[in-house]
Design goal:
- The complex is a heterodimer of chains A (338) and B (122).
- Chain A folds into two domains: 150 residues, CBS-domain (Roll), CATH 3.10.580.10; 146 residues, Heat Shock Protein 90 (2-Layer Sandwich).
- Chain A has 13 helices and ten strands.
- Chain A is elongated.
- The two termini of chain A are 27 Å apart.
- In chain A, 33% of the residues are buried.
- In chain B, strands 1-5-4-3-2 form a five-stranded mixed beta sheet, sandwiched between helices.
- In chain B, 35% of the residues lie in helices and 15% in strands.
- The chains are: A alpha+beta (338), B alpha/beta (122).
- Chains A and B meet through α1, α2, α9, α10 and α13 of A and α2 and α3 of B.
Chain lengths: 338, 122
């Protein structure tokens, strides 16, 4: 699969930049997301079985293509290619009907299949051009590697612009909305013992901060603090809890609250290495008694308010200095030129 | 050091995409405790770990870890591979043990990105 993508991108033999590496991964994703009908060409140049090889010669030359489907009563019955044409030329039989030279065992792909399917067929068969059929086995279009490259590039460009525009819009939020005090509040419900999705809320928060124009370092520190806090809810809180982030131009306030079991001795909980985590939490790589210590390191202020039997509130605050504030990119991105 | 050189040293296999091979890795760290990674590892590291669950990938995302090597022949689930691919983090599986591979990479010139375990990066 990856080799196919490299081949498609023509990047063999030179080092990839990080951005390119990321895009290539996106290319692989797109090859599964995009359907063949999204990228195929619908303008079909076809011939009939009684047309001559001379007709093939003209069609291929005029349209600069390497093959064409052969239709009879609107059904796909064969394919005629450059190679077939060369065989006819060698014998001096340009007046022979296509029927005598065409390949009847036609390999097709389906219009509703993902693009990766066509890539697999291209790689396996070394055929350069494939007929695409719809759910009724009727010819719907043709697809080449070139069509795929074009389709993927268009989709990537759109992706990239979408993210740029999102980032741009978000980063202007605090400048565009005028009030005495503007804040953005994000809320996430965290389920108890959900180790599979644990960290998802933190991932959203980190991305939101980056989109708002936070520096990678700031986004990382907030990300680590909320992730530790999120894991605490998952590991310890009886019914899970709520993770709330309040973003303001001068500070970021992060808070978790739950309704139990509460921490009997907060001072002890703050000691590095102290832990009451279950074996299972430990087997997930957590519960080493470093969570709160680690949060303290990432934020300017941390407060714990806990009552056994009632619940715990954890408050984390990061102050932003003027040069740390959310920065909007200087210019608006252009609209996607697709 | 290029990721591809690290993969050779580890005799490892990239599990999500060979397009990651040209990633530049500035240093390494070894840990089975994700809290330790979150506490002290500086951004840009390859993480060597014997732990194999979704939280390893999440931790890598949060701590800006660039690549993960699963040691002792451990193999992540398809869900973990998907998640890592989404986040642009290469996953590598290696038969090597922690001590051995840390040593090999260090000897090959890869610096440690493990900060101070008392909390500060310096």
């Amino acid at each position: 699969m990856s080799d196919t993508i490299q081949e498609l991108y023509g990047r063999k033999g030179r080092n990839l930049t990080d951005r390119e590496a990321q895009e290539i991964t996106r290319v692989e994703e797109l090859s599964y997301e995009l359907k063949i009908q999204d990228v195929m060409s619908r303008e079909i140049k076809s011939l009939g079985p009684s047309d001559t090889m001379q007709n093939v010669f003209d069609l291929l030359r005029q349209n600069r293509i390497s093959g064409a489907p052969v239709l009879e009563d609107n059904s796909l019955i064969g394919i005629i290619s450059q190679e077939d044409l060369m065989r006819a030329l060698a014998k001096g039989e340009l007046s022979a009907p296509i029927r005598e030279y065409m390949t009847t065992k036609v390999i097709t792909v389906k219009s509703y299949e993902p693009v990766v399917k066509a890539l697999e067929v291209f790689t396996r068969t070394r055929i350069g051009r494939l007929p695409v059929v719809d759910e009724n086995e009727k010819l719907a279009g043709m697809i080449t590697k070139g069509d795929i490259t074009r389709g993927v590039l268009v989709a990537i460009r759109k992706d990239y612009h979408d993210e740029e525009i999102r980032r741009y819009r978000a980063s202007h939020l605090f400048e565009d909305i005028i009030s005495d005090r503007t804040s953005l509040i994000l809320r996430y419900k965290i389920r108890p013992r959900d180790f599979t999705n644990g960290g998802q809320a933190s991932s959203y928060i980190k991305r939101a901060l980056l989109r708002l124009g936070a520096s990678p370092q700031l986004a990382r520190e907030c990300g680590i603090a909320v992730y530790e806090a999120e894991m605490n809810l998952i590991i310890h809180a009886t019914n899970g809890g709520v993770l709330r982030v309040q973003i303001e131009p001068h500070r970021i306030l992060m808070q978790t609250s739950d309704d139990g079991p509460g921490i009997p001795d907060v001072k002890l909980a703050l000691q590095p290495g102290w832990s009451t985590a279950s074996e299972f939490a430990r087997s997930m790589g957590f519960g080493a008694g470093m969570g709160l210590v680690n949060i303290q390191r990432c934020v300017n202020k941390m407060e714990i308010d806990s009552t056994p039997g009632k619940g715990t509130k954890l408050l984390m605050e990061i102050h932003l200095s003027p040069d740390e504030k959310f920065k909007a990119p200087p210019d608006a991105p252009e609209a996607p030129g697709v | 050091m290029k990721l591809t050189e690290i993969i050779e040293q580890a005799n490892g296999k990239v599990l999500n995409s060979s397009a990651f091979r040209d990633y530049e890795i500035i240093g390494g760290c070894g840990a089975d405790l994700m809290s330790d990674v979150l506490t002290a590892v500086r951004p840009g590291a390859v993480l060597l770990t014997g732990l194999c669950n979704p939280q390893v990938v999440r931790t890598a995302e949060m701590a800006d870890v660039r690549a993960i090597i699963f040691l002792r022949g451990k193999h992540p689930t398809p869900e973990m591979i998907d998640l890592a691919t989404q986040k642009g983090i290469p996953l590598i599986s290696s038969e090597a043990g922690m001590f051995e591979l840390c040593g090999r990479l260090y000897k090959a010139g890869l610096q440690s990105l493990e900060g101070n375990w008392n909390g500060s990066y310096e």
